[in-house]
Amino acid sequence: GQRIVEIQTGQFARLVSKLCFFLERYPVTVVHPMSRIRYLTWTDPGTGESTKPRKSPTVGTPLSALHQLYPIRNLLGVENLTVELLLFDLDEYRLLDGYGKTRKKGSTLRERIPRGEPELIRLQTPRDYRALLPKELPEEFTVPLFAKVTHLKSRQAYSAVHVLEALGIVEACGTVGRATLYCLV
Predict the structure, then answer these.
(1) Which regions of the chain are under pLDDT 70?
(2) Strand-pair partners of 7
């Protein structure tokens, strides 16, 4: 009765109007579960044969969550809002029924099972978000350099920088060629 908890796996744009309404009245916690390390097992639907679990090269990090938080970036600094990232490893089982040479593109997801202890990261103040930045990040950087240092894809890096800019952690401070130069505040 005194707090609202929203578990959101994606589609954060749909939360904007709901959060605007609830944040005026209650403290709100948005929990975002995300995979850290995935172990993939592929099953051929024709033979029923399964591969041994293999570790996916894609690793989820707290910084990669900023891409998801982009639609609510202007609400992240609000005092009543807490974002909790629940990072966990998981076993993922997929069917080899997709297209392409390996039949993995567009394949069917059968099941995801959490593995091990999850890690909870609570983000409430700009200082909490700033703590996510790697120490190797220089004081001045462009988005491509940010992507390289943080190991994010280009689109994720752009979203992450704009979230950090909305929180007042970084600001545009010039250009390098055609790229915007950002400075840590």
Answers:
(1) none
(2) 31
> Over the stretch 30-76, which tens digit does the pLDDT of each residue have?
999 999 999 999 999 989 899 999 999 888 899 999 999 999 999 99
DSSP H stretches of helix in the chain: 16-23, 62-69, 126-130, 143-150, 154-166
Those residues whose C-beta lies under 8 Å from the C-beta of residue 46, and which sit 6 or more positions away, are none
Token duo for residue 16: 């904007």
| 3-state SS string for 29-63 | EEEEEEEEEEEEEEECCCCCCECCCEEEEEECCHH
Residue 43 CB coordination number (10 Å) = 18
pLDDT of residue 117: 92
Structure tokens at 88: 């966990």
Distance CA 123, CA 90 (A): 23
